[in-house]
Amino acid sequence: MDKPPPRKRMVRLPSGGGDGRTPAARLKTAKLRTPSSQAWLKRQLNDPYVAEAKARGYRSRAAFKLIEIDEKAHLLRRGMRVIDLGCAPGGWLQVLRERGAAAVVGVDLLPVDPVAGAIIVQADFTADGIGERLAALLGGAPDLILSDMAPNTTGHRETDHLRITGLIEAGADFAEKTLRPGGAFVAKAFQGGETAEVIAMLKRVFTDVRTIKPKASRTESSEVFLAATGFKGR
Prior knowledge:
Elements: H1 35-45, H2 48-56, H3 62-73, E1 81-85, H4 91-98, E2 103-108, E3 118-122, H5 130-138, E4 144-147, H6 157-178, E5 184-190, H7 194-203, E6 206-212, E7 223-231
Helix pairs in contact: 3-4, 6-7
């Protein structure tokens, strides 16, 4: 059996183009792409986290978000049980296995390529019975539940707020029903007034709740993560 690579701490990654030393990559097929497609691809080509993810074999730059969250909240340890909600494309599953998680179950609406040592379910987490199925597959109460779930946005602020809050609440409710005492829950949220009510909800059942903005999250994104630790139990 291959041994997992040694745990690596985050280091300062090389900056993208425009620093006077490394020229930004240019698109050679720009004429064949829409302006939005050009902008996205250019951002990818010049994103140091994308390059580092490729170098380390991670499926996405999101792997570094979990690494940074762990460095701040100290969540991951060898032998733990973890459920990953919204696990596509599998970067967080890779980090969990790399850090020695003994049992890992992930779920997503999208198909996810296998990750060694992880059980992956393609389903809607909010559908009846899926939460119970994930808990059964894990083989015991989880130490950590992660949620990188995010709804498709409509552009209508109130509607998007309800959808985002609804997913966080669904994940938090699942965590309250299944976590072992002392366990932790992490959920993606977005900066704005809507996070205050969710944080208040989490503080009722966790001893510590903090908001983390990983450096791996794009600067222009309002994405943040709520890390709730010290589950008080049911």
